[in-house]
């Protein structure tokens, strides 16, 4: 990527080489068995303690620790109780190796060189605590933060959510009682005290139970409507609140019971509760309210991952009926608010003022409930909010809402909270306090160590940037200021990613806040990820620059694969005082023509950005409404897109780009309008002649139409070109190209005899199965007529776990030029189906069901089938369709094929809950000049979501088209004219973006060394195993006299040798051919195994032309599956040579003699003066003289044991023996005289 060349990224890469996985806490903090406990000073209401007296007693008695505790008169436990437990009550804690607190310790009270444990509230870079953090570092304090101590399941070890829920619910009854009194009702709630007024939880529960008895005994006024308490959240907070609520007489109700309940008359002897589910808070924008309310289940994970696709509905379905909202949910700015000021104002304006009290136990200021504008205190837990005037008051009023937002609720139940606190801490203390321990701690503490040896630990170095920001400016991002939200999930700390992200944001002069940070680390055997949500802003940046910063962060994430991180960017612009979201980014309008299924993913992708508006056009109102709901900013226009050209033209003129997902014949018309309006266009269809004709005009105006950005065509082009361009760039050439693709039902949904489901028109599928096909295989052009296409399916093994087949897809030969692969001897594109599909369809074709002829009979299918011959292989499918049953009518009596399509669509459409599947596979081979052969495999497998989610076809087509459109809008595509995504500048980025959507090609490459140099010793031979379609070529690498042959059959070779000037060597076996050549003539020999798998044998005579010369042969094998760089076979019995067997004089007139002995059974026949060796397995060759065979002085007859053959050369020459198979033994005896050759 271009951004990777920035010096910042270069520095980053270097730093990663030495980055440690985790910081190791210092060994300087040695344990000495002394624990200190500080007095709390954070707030007067903080009466909790980290250890109860009973826990101190255990430490002192059972572990012989010393516990020193500073005296305090406000703790829930007295000083005397600690003294009785064995603690030393004193101010001086200097002896302690570990000091415990609950909340932040005062800076001037910190003791240097100690280990501390308390809630520091620094991990989000909270500005108010940055000075404290600096003091911790300056004092060389090792701080363990309770907030970061996690259990193996990732949940916090020290958590007080349940106690917050209990205390908050008790306090809720106070607000309910006071607000009802303002409305003229005296109720038992008015006598309910605050939770801190009870001695302990037992007393509190007894008091609430007493309140419940009063309600059950008729304590609620008869004119008072039924009181409905709505609870949000699923965690400990909500659990604690419900636990207290259920102490009252109560009934749990469902959403659909609210209307009837509110109509019921009093008096009511109980209160009512409703658990707010996701479906009560939000709905998909693409759904109508009726569709949403009819749903039985809701996908929580989808909502969390895609909040932009949802909109709030709580104000419509729950808020009009509730009296009390108990809010315990998590929320951040990625998600729709539970309730806004404008929504509650609308309720009150409509005289729906039953909403009495908000108890926001989560205490998220300006969060999920917008009118929680400030926190409240323990002694004054409520303020009053008037929705109509948007004002707050500390004085209760008769109209409006009492609002509670106490941020230290657990401190109101200090006794139980402290015990819970200490129980969690006790097992961890020994690692730090134990004598001589403390240098190395366990994973829970290591992950929670913020400062160590005067530095921030590796996990928390990011805070340093926030600390610097605090001391430099101390200004936070204004809640009304435009911003972006960056959501990061991964190993942010141990990889160093978070630190580099913050450096990058700072270097771009941006302000930043951490909205949420859940620290991971190593827990047990699991390495947990960290989730962080960052809020980034810079009011001085120019249009689009803020998003450019976010893009740099995205690039940075890609550069750190060891972080295994994911990033999501959310548009900025908070809701501002009951107004719509505002953004400074210039919005571009995308005109989307077509509202079918694939349009959903397109709209969702484009619609993520604040600076995009999607205008969806279609002629079906329900479809248009559904699609536009997936985009943040959208508009739907329902009209006859193909027929109302004036309206279409007007929409094109108003847009920045037009995307046509209409049928291909309409593209040229849309293209004409795009040219007239001066905008670019994008389609997922093949380039048609009509589109190609626009190329010149587009280039004249500097415009473009990007075509073929879907699945096939689209992703197939891009993934294949990526591989082929890489091979070419390294000097290779493409020798083999096969690409197959198919849309299928997922295996569990392939539950009919045809093993297919239709997600688009059956007519298209049936028509495609009858197209002519043309392709190249092993250098031969194959032409299959459409009538026989289904009868020519071949098995496909590219996805081994599935039983698949493949049909040739139209004319593959055009890709020789389109892909620039002139050297390929195989070019094939095919369609994937489950095995058996073609056989069934061929039977259907033979029956005549694909013919466009009139239906016979009285209009029932049984009448149509009665006149047809049903093949055996198709019988099960016909029975499954039920075409021979009574009463099944054809849909169109004028056409058999149209009626059959209608039947298939009715019986075999992919169900709403079923998943589809997309498969794609490339087999691409590249040859290189050094003899290497690379075999590349690339596979894509995508499943649909089922249950009404996106289909695999929707994702692969829609996301690809959307990415192409975004690249046009962002200026990433510079070329003009009619374009396809085969250019590197397009497909590289597009494939990267597709990966981010989970559309990933799995790639592999095998490398074969196809060239080997054979160095013969005398007369030698080799065997190679080649399969069908392979080739072997032999070329001399030396001109020093090699005579070489290649032949195919070892068992039946007739080998004949004659004078070189006459008919040369020749032979034949089973009508097959063999070839030969000599280095003297510079020959090259070639054989192909095009007909079947076979073996190739190479024989080389190294001394053919010159005595005492050497030579070699380079053998190059083009093989489909095997590495043939080394011979796989050699003779099982080598000849035994006792001495040199070639003699010659300098003047060339000395003759020699060679003697050959055999032991074994052989069979030779003499034909004239030549030898005929019919059995290659027992091949013996004696060569005498250079050009001719001499007459044999001794001829060996059949089945002779122990015989010898002696021959005397007629001219200077040599003798050779090659014995291939037992039980033959051979030796060569030197002739006399024994003078060695020169």
UniProtKB/TrEMBL annotation:
Pfam families: AlaDh_PNT_N, Saccharop_dh_N, Sacchrp_dh_C, Sacchrp_dh_NADP. Residues 36-167 form the Alanine dehydrogenase/pyridine nucleotide transhydrogenase N-terminal domain. GO terms for molecular function: saccharopine dehydrogenase activity. Pathway: Amino-acid degradation; L-lysine degradation via saccharopine pathway; glutaryl-CoA from L-lysine: step 2/6; Amino-acid degradation; L-lysine degradation via saccharopine pathway; glutaryl-CoA from L-lysine: step 1/6. Gene3D superfamilies: Dihydrodipicolinate Reductase, domain 2, Domain 3, Saccharopine reductase, LOR/SDH bifunctional enzyme, conserved domain, NAD(P)-binding Rossmann-like Domain. GO terms for cellular component: cytoplasm. GO terms for biological process: lysine biosynthetic process via aminoadipic acid. Keywords: Multifunctional enzyme, NAD, NADP, Oxidoreductase. Residues 213-405 form the Alanine dehydrogenase/pyridine nucleotide transhydrogenase NAD(H)-binding domain. In the C-terminal section; belongs to the saccharopine dehydrogenase family. This is Saccharopine dehydrogenase (NAD(+), L-glutamate-forming). It comes from Triparma retinervis.
């Amino acid at each position: 990527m271009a951004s990777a060349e920035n010096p910042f990224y270069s520095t980053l890469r270097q730093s990663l080489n030495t980055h440690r996985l985790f910081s190791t806490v210092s060994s300087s903090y040695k344990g000495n068995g002394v624990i200190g406990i500080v007095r709390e000073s954070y707030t007067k209401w903080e009466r909790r303690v980290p250890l109860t007296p009973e826990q101190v007693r255990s430490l002192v008695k059972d572990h012989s620790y010393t516990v020193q505790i500073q005296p305090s008169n406000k703790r829930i436990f007295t000083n005397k109780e600690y003294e009785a437990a064995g603690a030393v009550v004193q101010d001086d804690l200097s002896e302690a190796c570990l000091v415990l607190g609950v909340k932040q310790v005062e800076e001037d009270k910190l003791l240097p060189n100690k280990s501390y444990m308390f809630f520091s509230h620094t991990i989000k870079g909270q500005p108010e605590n940055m000075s404290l953090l600096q003091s911790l570092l300056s004092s060389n304090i090792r701080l363990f933060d309770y907030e970061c101590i996690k259990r193996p399941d990732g949940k916090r070890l020290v958590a007080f959510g349940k106690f917050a829920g209990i205390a908050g619910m008790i306090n809720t009854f106070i607000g309910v009682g006071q607000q009802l009194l303002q409305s003229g009702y005296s109720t038992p709630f008015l006598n309910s005290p605050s939770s801190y007024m009870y001695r302990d939880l037992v007393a509190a529960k007894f008091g609430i139970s007493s309140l419940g008895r009063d309600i059950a005994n008729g304590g609620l006024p008869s004119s008072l409507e039924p009181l409905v308490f709505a609870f949000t959240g699923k965690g400990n907070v909500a659990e604690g609140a419900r636990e207290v609520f259920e102490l009252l007489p109560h009934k749990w109700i469902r959403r659909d019971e609210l209307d009837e309940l509110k109509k019921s008359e009093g008096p009511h002897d109980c209160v009512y509760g409703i658990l707010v589910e996701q479906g009560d808070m939000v709905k998909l924008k693409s759904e109508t309210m009726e569709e949403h309310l009819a749903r039985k289940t809701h996908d929580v994970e989808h909502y969390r991952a895609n909040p932009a696709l949802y909109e709030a509905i709580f104000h419509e379905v729950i808020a009009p009926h509730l009296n009390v909202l108990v809010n315990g949910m998590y929320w951040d700015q990625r998600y729709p608010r539970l309730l806004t000021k404008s929504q509650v104002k609308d309720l009150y304006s409509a005289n729906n003022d039953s909403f009495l009290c908000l108890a926001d136990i989560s205490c998220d200021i300006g969060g999920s409930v917008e009118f929680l504008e400030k926190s409240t205190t323990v002694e004054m837990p409520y303020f009053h909010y008037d929705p109509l005037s948007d004002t707050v008051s500390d004085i209760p009023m008769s109209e409006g809402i009492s609002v509670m937002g106490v941020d230290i609720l657990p401190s109101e139940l200090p006794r139980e909270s402290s015990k819970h606190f200490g129980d969690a801490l006790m097992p961890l203390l020994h690692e730090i306090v134990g004598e001589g321990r403390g240098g190395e701690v366990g994973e829970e503490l290591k992950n929670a160590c913020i400062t160590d040896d005067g530095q921030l630990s590796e996990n928390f170095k990011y805070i340093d940037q926030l600390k610097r920001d605090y001391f430099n400016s101390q200004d936070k991002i204004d809640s009304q200021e435009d911003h972006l939200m960056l959501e990061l999930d991964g190993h942010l700390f141990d990889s160093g990613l978070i630190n580099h992200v913050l450096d990058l944001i700072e270097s771009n002069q941006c302000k930043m806040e951490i909205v949420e940070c859940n620290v991971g680390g190593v827990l047990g055997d699991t390495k947990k990820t960290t989730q962080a949500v960052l809020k980034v802003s810079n009011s001085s940046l120019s249009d689009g620059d803020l998003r450019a910063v976010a893009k740099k962060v995205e690039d940075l994430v890609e550069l750190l694969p060891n972080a295994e991180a994911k990033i999501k960017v959310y548009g900025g612009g908070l809701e501002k005082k009951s107004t719509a979201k505002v953004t400074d980014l210039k919005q571009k309008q995308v005109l989307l023509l077509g509202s079918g299924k694939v349009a959903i993913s397109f709209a969702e992708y484009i619609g993520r950005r604040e600076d995009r508006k999607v205008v969806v056009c279609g002629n079906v109102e329900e479809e248009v409404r559904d699609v536009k709901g997936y985009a943040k900013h959208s508009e739907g226009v329902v009209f006859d897109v193909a027929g109302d050209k004036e309206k279409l033209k007007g929409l094109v003129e108003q847009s920045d780009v037009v995307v046509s997902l209409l049928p291909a014949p309409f593209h040229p018309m849309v293209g004409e309008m795009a040219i007239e309006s001066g905008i670019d266009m994008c389609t997922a269809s093949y380039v048609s002649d009509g589109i190609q004709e626009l190329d010149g005009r587009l280039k004249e105006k500097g415009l473009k139409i990007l075509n073929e950005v879907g699945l096939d065509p689209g992703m197939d082009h891009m993934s294949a070109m990526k591989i082929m361009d890489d091979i070419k760039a390294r000097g290779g050439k493409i020798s083999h190209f096969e690409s197959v693709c198919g849309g299928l039902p997922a295996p569990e949904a392939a539950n009919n005899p045809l093993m297919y489901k239709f997600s688009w028109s059956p007519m298209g599928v049936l028509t495609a199965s009858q197209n002519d096909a043309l392709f190249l295989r092993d250098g031969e052009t194959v032409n299959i007529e459409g009538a026989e296409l289904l009868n020519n399916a071949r098995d496909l093994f590219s996805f081994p776990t599935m039983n698949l087949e493949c049909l040739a897809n139209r004319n593959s030969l055009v890709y020789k030029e389109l892909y620039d692969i002139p050297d390929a001897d195989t070019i094939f594109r095919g369609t994937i189906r489950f095995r058996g599909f073609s056989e069934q369809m061929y039977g259907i074709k033979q029956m005549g069901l694909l013919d466009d002829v009139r239906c016979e009979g009285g209009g029932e299918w049984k009448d149509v089938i009665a006149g047809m011959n049903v093949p055996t292989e198709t019988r099960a499918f016909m029975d499954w369709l039920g075409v021979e049953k009574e009463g099944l009518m054809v849909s169109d009596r004028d056409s058999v094929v149209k009626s059959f399509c209608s039947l298939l669509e009715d019986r075999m459409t992919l169900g709403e809950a079923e998943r589809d599947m997309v498969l794609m596979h490339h087999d691409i081979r590249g040859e290189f000049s050094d003899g290497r052969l690379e075999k590349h495999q690339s596979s894509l497998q995508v499943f649909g979501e089922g249950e009404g989610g996106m289909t695999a076809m929707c994702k692969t087509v829609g996301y690809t088209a959307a990415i192409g459109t975004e690249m046009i809008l962002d200026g990433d595509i510079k070329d003009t004219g009619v374009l396809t995504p085969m250019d590197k500048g397009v497909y590289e980025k597009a494939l990267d973006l597709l990966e981010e959507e989970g559309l990933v090609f799995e790639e592999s490459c095998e490398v074969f060394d196809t060239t080997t140099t054979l160095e013969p010793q005398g007369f030698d031979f080799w065997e190679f195993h080649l399969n069908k379609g392979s080739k072997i070529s032999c070329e001399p690498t030396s001109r020093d006299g090699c005579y070489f042959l290649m032949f195919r059959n070892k068992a039946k070779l007739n080998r004949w040798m004659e004078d070189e000037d006459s008919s040369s060597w020749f032979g034949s076996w089973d009508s097959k051919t063999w070839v030969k050549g000599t280095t003297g003539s510079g020959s090259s020999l070639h054989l192909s195994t095009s007909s079947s798998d076979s073996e190739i044998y190479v024989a080389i005579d190294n001394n053919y032309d010159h005595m005492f010369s050497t030579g070699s042969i380079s053998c190059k094998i083009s093989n489909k599956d095997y590495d043939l760089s080394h011979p796989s076979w050699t003779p099982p019995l080598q000849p035994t040579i006792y001495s040199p067997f070639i003699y010659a004089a300098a003047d060339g007139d000395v003759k020699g003699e060679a003697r050959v002995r055999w032991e074994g059974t052989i069979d030779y026949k003499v034909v004239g003066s030549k030898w005929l060796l019919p059995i290659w397995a027992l091949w013996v060759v004696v060569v005498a003289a250079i050009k001719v065979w001499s007459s044999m002085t001794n001829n060996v007859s059949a089945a002779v044991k122990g015989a010898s053959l002696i021959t005397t050369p007629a001219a200077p020459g040599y003798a050779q023996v090659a014995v291939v198979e037992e039980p033959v033994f051979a030796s060569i005896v030197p002739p006399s005289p024994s003078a060695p050759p020169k």
